[in-house]
Structure formats: structure tokens, C-alpha cells
What does this fold into?
Amino acid sequence: MLILASASPRRRELLSQIGVAYMVNPSTYEEGAPKKKDPAKFVLAQALGKANDVAAKYPGQWVLGADTVVALDGEILGKPKHEKDAMRMLQELSGRKHSVFTGVALVRGKKTYTKVVETKVWFRKLKDSEIKDYVHSGEPMDKAGAYGIQGKAAVFVEKVNGSYTNVVGLPLSQVYTLLQKAKIIG
It folds into this structure.
């Protein structure tokens, strides 16, 4: 059975959506702060760190680790530290295009399959009152870039180029392909 090295309810919902049997064992991997302006390398390193952390406890089992970030002009926007930080991020994203990167690592022993997926997202110009109301809802506080496309922030999005499920937190088409390579599914 696949082990998901994440406590993310969104990742659990996405895996369940495609009928993959899994159990959850969140990683205790100490996530690093992005030091460089290379979001693709950063998310891949984080995903590998999470997957390897859990795989060490379950030899012989396949472990799926993932990490998602929002990047604006190459700079990574993490999860907001507080409401003011969330408002700042959303103001920066307002009326602009940004990228969402997810690194995925599937690990069992020395066998590793990885993928990084980038999706471009365009926000319409947001009113300050919309940002304030959204932040006060509490929804953006545990999300990269201070928004969840699958929630109330869906109305902020004008266009998506690439995987929608990547923006939610797990690029299903690419994950499915990795699961096939590993012969976890047919």
C-alpha cells in the first residue's frame, strides 16, 4: 500500500478521487526556507526530504512526498506568517500572473521517481475589501501564496495554464504516471 508522507487534507482528497489506496504518515522532515530563487529545485528537494524521512520508517513500502509553492517573478511565496503577511501576498498577486510549483517524490528503498510540475495562474485585479474579507475568513493561513483555488479564492482566478490539481497541491496526471511506473497501479 502507498504511504502518503503528508497531513494535507487536499492531497488526501485528490488521491482518494482517483481511487488510490493509501495510508497517511506525515513526515517530520524539517522543511527548509527557500534560500535561492529556484522554486523547481526547492520543491523537489522538499518532496524528496519528506518521502525519504517516512520511507526510512517503512522499508519496502512506496512513499509519496510532495511540496507546493507559489512563485511570483521567481520569488517563492510561502505560507503566510500572519494576516498582514497574507494580505501583502494577495496584493502582490492581484492582477498578475504567477506560477505554482509542486515537487513529487515516490520512494521505496533506493528506487526513486520524481517530477516537478509548474502551472501558471492569472489573478484578476482584486479589491482591497475582497482581500481583507478573504484573509479574515482564515482560509489562506495554511496555504502557499495565501490562497486556495479550491475554496473561496476560486473567484480570484481568471485563467489557469496547466494542471489545476497541481494548484490544489498534487498534480494527479503526473502522480498517476509515477504510480504506474512503480507498478503500484495498472
Q: What stands out?
A: The beta strands are 2-4, 22-24, 63-72, 75-77, 97-108, 111-123, 157-161.
